[in-house]
Amino acid sequence: MELAQLAQAYIHLKPYAATEKRFTSLGRYAELIAAEAASDIYGGDVVVEIELEEGSLVARVTVVGLLLGLYGGIADYKGFKESVVEMCDDAREFAVDVCGPFTKKASVPKEEIYRFERRLKTPGKLYRISRRLEKLERSATDLSPKSVQKELSSLRAELDAVAADLTTEELAAVEKGLVRSKKMPAPSQWPAPEPRAISRRDEDADQPQLFGGDTKDPLNPKNRIVFRSSTFVTKKLKLRRAKPKNEQLLPEG
């Protein structure tokens, strides 16, 4: 079954040296704090994935799950956009809730946190598509029909890339939610992507770095994965953590 990547905390500590036992201890601790954060924010019924890579220390803490199971149905474009903004808020909150306790457990000063990113993953991709569609609709009258079709083709490529993270039902709901008005065709009528068309950029590249460092995140083949795990977080009976409206964070850009 396809599962959407709901959020990821990316933490790069540099310099950082530890024994195998210490790496394992950090990995197990990351499991605990990630499961707690996922339970509080998403209400459980999700999977948290932990990956620690040596070479200083790179931690990727990811939560995956079913979008419709967590955010419900999407009645129209307004409901779709509100749901995507909420998904992005939750993704940021998850990453922050993981980073603080993890770096404290690793016993590193702030200056050794080389890089920390709140990665929006699937919600970030959906948000970017909705923003591009809004921009296209506003400027459609100033563009030639060929230019409009080219942009829709590019959007089709991005939507096809997101589809790999979604179930058939979720993709149908997303396509329904992307129907803004009669001015723009429904996604099912968007032209096919041009040959070799790819998403313009990874959604992670849009996230501001809270600390310095590169903007790329290659998995260095010389660095070993020293810890990897996948843990299912059971569903909670109580409601998900509520956020006051005036404290919600809107996606950048």
Short characterization:
With 253 residues, the protein is an alpha+beta fold. The protein contains six helices and five strands, in the order βαββααβαααβ. The protein has one domain (4-247).
Polypeptide structure, described:
- The chain has 253 residues and is an alpha+beta fold.
- It has one domain.
- Helix content is 42%, strand content 17%.
- The chain has six helices and five strands.
- It has helices spanning 20-42, 67-71, 77-105, 121-139, 145-163, 168-177, and strands at 4-13, 46-54, 57-65, 113-119, 225-233.
- A hairpin with a 2-residue loop joins strand 2 (46-54) and strand 3 (57-65).
- Helix 1 runs antiparallel to helix 3 (77-105) and helix 3 (77-105) runs antiparallel to helix 4 (121-139).
- It is elongated, with a radius of gyration of 19 Å.
- The two termini are 32 Å apart.
- Mean pLDDT is 85; it is low at 199-203, 208-216 and 246-253.
Jot down its keywords.
253 residues; alpha+beta; five-stranded antiparallel beta sheet; 6 helices; 5 strands; 17% strand
Task: Report the strand count.
Answer: 5
Query: Which H/E pattern describes the elements?
Result: EHEEHHEHHHE
Largest sheet entry:
5 strands, antiparallel
Major β-sheet strand ordering: 4-1-3-2-5
Structural domain tally? 1
How would you describe the oligomerization state of the chains in this entry? single chain
Classification by helices and strands: alpha+beta
The gross shape turns out to be elongated
